[in-house]
Amino acid sequence: MNTPAYQHEVIVPNQGFPFKLFLFEGNNGKYLREKHWHRSIEIFAVQEGSLEFILNEKHYPLETGNFIIVNSNEVHAVRAPKPNRTIVLQIPVNLFSAYYTEEQFIWFSHGEKTYDSQVTSMMFELFGLYTERKIGYELQMMSLFYQLQYLLVTKYRKLEVHEELLKSNKQLKRLGVITSYLKEHYKEDITLEKLAGIFGYSPSYLSRMFMKYAKINYKDYLQSVRLEHALLDLQETEKEIGEIALEHGFPNSKALSNLFRKRYGILPNEFRKQIKKTKK
Fold first, then answer.
1. How many domains does the chain contain in total?
2. Do 79 and 27 contact (CB within 8 A), yes or no?
3. How far apart are CA 140 and CA 76, in angstroms?
4. Which of 7, 31, 59, 177 could cross-link to 80 by cystine, CB 3.0-4.6 Å?
5. Does residue 25 belong to any structural domain of this protein?
6. CA-CA distance, 172 to 216, in Å (whole number)?
7. d(CA 148, CA 135)
8. pLDDT for 162-175, tens place per residue?
């Protein structure tokens, strides 16, 4: 059976640059992004406030001035209960291809370094230049970006990685193709059996892939995708909660409300009221 050619979370760079730079979407707080992964390298640098990362089941609390590197195909979740100002840089992994190991692989450490302040200052300066956009800012940004790449490759790159990490990375690439398809069809009644059949796996094998490598079961992953879309509609539209639920694959408003309260500790209508207050 031929596998559909879906690619997982393709980066669309900022115009004129080989990377994507932006303000973290959870800057208003009360934010939770469930377990996910992608092909890009990501750097999160906290300029104000705090947030928490969960990478491969390990917790990394970040305060003002801290940053974290998220590797390609590294499973992570993000929690930002309070307002923050965090700069995010996404770098296509192929920009590091000249520095791959023999296994065509690259991995950066998360550990504390004595030169951490260099990374955060570069990130903040990059975003400042991009925001102000004075004459010649493109040249300044590319110069800073190359310095940052140099620091990553020379100070953070791990030259020895264990076999299990290589295997996990390979499996998450395969799962990435499947989850990209799922993200396009999440509104449908797409069962594990149906998805497995599309990609030529047995349901039990695909279920084990999700649990072993993504650390989440299939049903929870699908519900997380649906919930993220519902969350956006709650923030940006005036649609009824029941309408939002049905549009995004939930059987009814009660199912959406129960999951929403479980994940965010608040009901959808209460969340919407809070959003309206902050906009006044």
1. 2
2. no
3. 31
4. 31
5. yes
6. 12
7. 22
8. 666 667 777 777 88
User: Helix H segments across 68-162?
Assistant: 116-132, 137-151
For 51, which DSSP code?
Answer: E
Rounded to 5 degrees, φ, ψ at 142 are -65, -35
Average model confidence (pLDDT) for the chain? 86
Q: For the chain, what is the largest distance between any 2 Cα atoms, rounded to a whole number of angstroms?
A: 57
**What is the average pLDDT across 34-39?**
83
Tell me the helix, strand and coil percentages in the chain, rounded to 5: 50, 15, 35
State the DSSP H helix or E strand holding residue 21, giving kind and residue range, or none if neither: strand 20-23
Q: DSSP for 192-256?
A: HHHHHHHHT--HHHHHHHIIIIISS-HHHHHHHHHHHHHHHHHHH----HHHHHHHTT-SSHHHH
| For residues 202-206, average pLDDT | 93
The per-residue pLDDT for range 43-79, each reduced to its tens digit, is 999 999 999 999 878 899 999 999 999 998 888 999 9
For 9, the 3-state DSSP assignment is coil
> What domain range includes position 222?
164-279
Q: How far apart are CA 174 and CA 7, in angstroms?
A: 10
Give 103's pLDDT tier (boundaries 50, 70, 90): low
How far apart are the C-alpha atoms of 65 and 48, rounded to whole Å?
A: 8
